[in-house]
Design goal:
two-stranded antiparallel sheet, about 45% helix, single chain, alpha+beta, two-stranded antiparallel ribbon
């Protein structure tokens, strides 16, 4: 059985900004905002172009519901919506209003949205020769501790 997180990751695959949004949604706040049952986690209807039944994130629904959450949660949800549909967001508001552990996730999401996770190569020269080295994103995803029971 495929989890909601796996389905969302499959939906986002190939688009750095969506991958960053989904990873932020899955990793922040123990992933509770990436679970089915949230109004912004929607299943596609069969329209002939999209995979029938696959989950996706609806950014407009996030914007309609974000105001009922705490300041930090609202900021993260707003950033997720903006990453999904590539709309502007007040990044100063986002980074100044989240806890340190969530800030690390926000910074990683921005890094991945901006540069992706591969193809970030630099030319390295040494006495042994020259090589292109994939240096990855500016900020890797931080390790997330499992939620306490």
């Amino acid at each position: 059985m495929t989890s909601a997180s796996d389905e969302l990751r499959a939906w986002a695959e190939g688009l750095n900004h969506r991958v960053a949004a989904v990873e932020l949604l899955v990793r922040a706040y123990s992933g509770r905002f990436a679970a089915e049952g949230n109004p912004w986690i929607v299943r596609y209807a069969d329209d002939g172009l999209l995979v029938d039944g696959r989950l996706y994130v609806d950014p407009e629904v996030i914007r309609q519901h974000a105001d009922v959450y705490s300041g930090g949660e609202r900021r993260v949800l707003t950033l997720v919506a903006s990453l999904v549909d590539e709309q502007p967001v007040n990044i100063v508001d986002v980074v100044s209003g989240v806890d340190r552990d969530v800030l690390a996730l926000v910074l990683a999401a921005l890094s991945h949205a901006g540069s992706g996770t591969d193809g970030n190569t630099v030319l390295v020269r040494s006495s042994a020769g020259t090589a292109l080295v994939d240096v990855g994103p500016v900020m890797p995803w931080p390790e997330v501790l499992p939620a306490e029971s």
